[in-house]
Amino acid sequence: MTETSAQPEGTPAPRTRIQRRKREAILEAGLTVFSQEGFRGATLDRIAAEAGLSKPNLLYYFPSKEAIHTELLTGLLHTWLDPLRALDPAGDPLAELLGYVRRKLLLARDYPRESRLFANEILQGAPRMRPALEGELRALVEEYATVIKGWIDAGHIAPIDPVHLIFSIWALTQHFADFEVQVRAVLGSEDPFEGAEAHLDTVFRRILRPDADGPRTSA
Length: 219
What we know:
Elements: H1 17-41, H2 44-51, H3 55-61, H4 65-85, H5 93-110, H6 112-123, H7 130-153, H8 162-178, H9 180-187, H10 192-208
Helix pairs in contact: 1-2, 1-4, 1-6, 4-7, 5-8, 5-10, 6-8
């Protein structure tokens, strides 16, 4: 029997191992369904079937598909921002930025469903994520854009708009997850990530090296 006497009044009882396992199964199923069907196309019946649960059992843990979707997106945002947070302002600028490109590419490789979930939310106008995008995401981008601007001013990397540089890194790495079907259709049996890492390293190295030719715009 679970002890509850030491539980502070008003505090929910800790979840049992079975409850945690079922919640994880629902979130895993929701991730699969949402990434395939989008929010509008997903149904609780489909998520429950994917999780191997009855719909009433699912509703015991989550009151709606909105609740599942929101919890997935909340966890995803932190995962998505971690590679940028790992950028070291005291490190070698070019190495740090190339490392960020690689981390984002590996995220696209290892978490393609999460990437498509995020992309679907953005394409729908971010109804459930807009506050986080305009708050936490914007603040983090501004913080690291300032770091990149400092590297530019010190002559460590070529003049370039820091925010649009970050946008470009997002676009060129997440493409491999969001358009995975297209990428694999073109490449056939070739692993897209084997060549992508070397290609993106070359692209950004040429853009960012201090002696790079061509017009640049500094923020």
